[in-house]
Specification:
The chain is 27% helix and 12% strand. By secondary structure, it is of the alpha+beta class. It has a two-stranded parallel ribbon with strand order 1-2.
């Protein structure tokens, strides 16, 4: 086998690989994140990227945001990921 130092082996370019970035979904985990989500989406859109804001609350933070009765009576909520971390 040839070693990398061998003159017959072509060295790879040191340039980083180029990736295509069309856009992103920017997500919150708590209402305190909402301004950052808005800001990130606005910045991406100004650069002509596709960006979708996703406002939500991670289950870990529900007790900080909802009252106990809201936990059980608010039927307009959805859970995106619900596993035992």
């Amino acid at each position: 086998p040839m070693s990398p130092a061998s003159p017959a082996v072509k060295k790879e370019s040191a340039a980083p690989p180029q990736f295509a970035f069309a856009g992103a979904a920017i997500m919150s985990t708590h209402p305190r994140d909402y301004p950052q989500v808005d800001s990130a989406v606005s910045e991406l859109r100004q650069r002509d990227f596709w960006a979708v804001p996703c406002f939500g609350i991670h289950p870990w933070f529900l007790s900080e945001v909802l009252t106990e009765s809201q936990h059980f009576t608010n039927h307009h909520c959805t859970t995106g990921e619900c596993d035992e971390d």
